[in-house]
Amino acid sequence: MIANIFKGIWATINFSRRLVLNILFFIIVIAIIMSIGSGDDEVRIEDKSILRLNLNGVVVEQLTYVDPIESAMSDTLSDSNEPREILLDDIIDVINKAAKDDKITALYLDLQRLHSAHLDKLRDIKDAIERFKAADKTVYAHGAYYSQAQYYIAAAADEVSLHPYGGVGIKGFAMYPVYFKEALEKLKITQHIFRVGTYKSAVEPYIRNDMSPQAKESNLGWITPLWQQYKQEVAASRGFSAANFDETLAALTDKMAAVKGDSAQYALQNQWVDSLETNQEFAQKLIDRVGLDSKGKSFKQVSFKQYLSTLAPKELANNPFTEKVAVIVAKGQISDGKRKAGAIGGDSTAALLKRARVNDKVKAVVLRIDSGGGSMFASETIRNEVEALKAAGKPVVASMGSVAASGGYWIAASANEIWASPSTITGSIGVFGMILTFEEAANSLGIHSDGVATTELGGQSPLRGINDSYAQLIQMGVEDAYDKFISMVAKERNLDKAAVNDVAQGRVWLATQAQEFGLVDKLGNKDDAIAAAAQLASLEMYDVITIEQKLSEQEKLIQQIFGTAMVQQVMQAITPSSLTFTQGALQRIGEIGSEVEQQSKMLQQLNDPNHVYSICLVCNTLPE
Length: 624
Description:
Blueprint: H1 2-35, E1 49-54, E2 57-60, H2 68-77, E3 85-87, H3 88-100, E4 104-110, E5 114-116, H4 119-134, E6 138-146, H5 148-154, E7 159-168, H6 181-186, E8 190-196, H7 204-207, H8 213-238, H9 249-258, H10 263-269, E9 275-276, H11 279-290, E10 301-303, H12 304-308, E11 324-331, E12 334-335, E13 344-345, H13 346-358, E14 362-371, E15 373-375, H14 376-391, E16 396-405, H15 407-410, E17 417-420, E18 425-427, E19 431-437, H16 439-444, H17 468-492, H18 497-503, E20 508-510, H19 511-517, E21 522-523, H20 526-536, E22 543-546, H21 553-562, H22 565-574, H23 579-592, H24 594-604, E23 612-615
Parallel strand pairs: 1-4, 1-10, 2-3, 2-5, 4-6, 6-7, 7-9, 11-14, 11-22, 12-13, 14-16, 16-17, 16-18, 17-21
Antiparallel strand pairs: 8-19, 15-23, 18-20, 19-23
């Protein structure tokens, strides 16, 4: 009797679930049909409009591949715990076009949802803003609160305003990784670590409970000059001294006491902002400047996403008859095999380089790197293709973004020239091997492994551990890999091997420091690297193309359909009102374990066939 009751309840729940899903499906289908041929998505820009640069997410060199349906629907449902990604090139292209657009009068920096960006990317955005201002157009910044990254961009505005109850959070840079040694011991997981390099700290979280003195020395050696760059560049934008930064709690406490704890007044008196305005007061100021929009509700404006949609697709501008400089982006952790966009696969990235090599119209290549490294074997696979490009008579320029360290430096080393941003994190020339075994954990659970093998080598297993002789073999391989690394760098960079060893040892450097050692040739951004590649190839007239993994026609169609305004409006209408609250709670919980999750993801991608890696862990946890 009870069983029948539960069966009936389950049948009712299951029927309701399928009914809701079917209704949802038909609503989406109807919306898709209605959206076909609809002109509602067309962006109309009024005269004297303001470009609202409302950036939402993390600024990246390359968008990480996600399923097209998931990507399109996440914009509506916001069902992802991960922050969205914004392509750096899109931001710069939008600002550059707006600077030349007679319909755009001013730029409004709405940065409240800008999550994070490394200093090199912030600098490129700031430079685009400066070009906009040079076109005799005004830039406004307004917000309730400015994070350190947000304020760097806001400081470039002609007028910076803050809500009277707001604040500016400038705290400097810090590096505090999470350490797992004690946790691994409690879980009875055995770490077998093999490394070379005094400063190779990538494995420290697994073998220590704190940061080693060597790692502290190395990390302070690059975050200190990085902080100096931030201060000097913000001070130059705002027109005050680089000493106008409070770096001690005592100094901040005294200033806050003088304004009775009012953060907005502190920001005003410290010259961080020019004025304090409510959102309504700021909006009215812009209405007075450009007038009301066609609906009469706000100032004339076009959003970042709307304006981006008016830009012509880059592939349509590709002239098949002109000579090319090809840009190939290598962003993310380096793993063996094939990887989608947003990660680096040895085979897949090498394949992109090969496409440039066999394309007769491509005369030079820029390898844009944003990676803290990974698999040594995969890095060498990519470097081999760089050498093949050079052998084919096509110069290669490595352009370093935020990070090009460890394996990221490995794939850059053979380029004809290496360009880097002043704030690029590079070096970390060192290798390590790591194997985690679970024999003690398994045994404690009553799980055992036993059997026979024809050789001693066949008996090594994560459930049985590894013996000392096998460990010695791996250590020998790691030492050989380190020697290959510094030998390769010495040869390709025309440096003395002993000198390379002195600045290697796994130590991390800023590009300004690395240039002094000969690890970097010149300082500049991606555009500078493209110009250098063209010069090396003796090109005067050329087009720039990006060679990348592309979506299939089916994926493009799905993405286009689910990206239409009508479908998004339908999805918003059927989204449960409680979703936002639930996600907010989940996000706060998720932030606590985010670094643990990042470490777990890194471990899952460590698939070098020889268990030898060149990766910079601290480079992947950049200070914001």
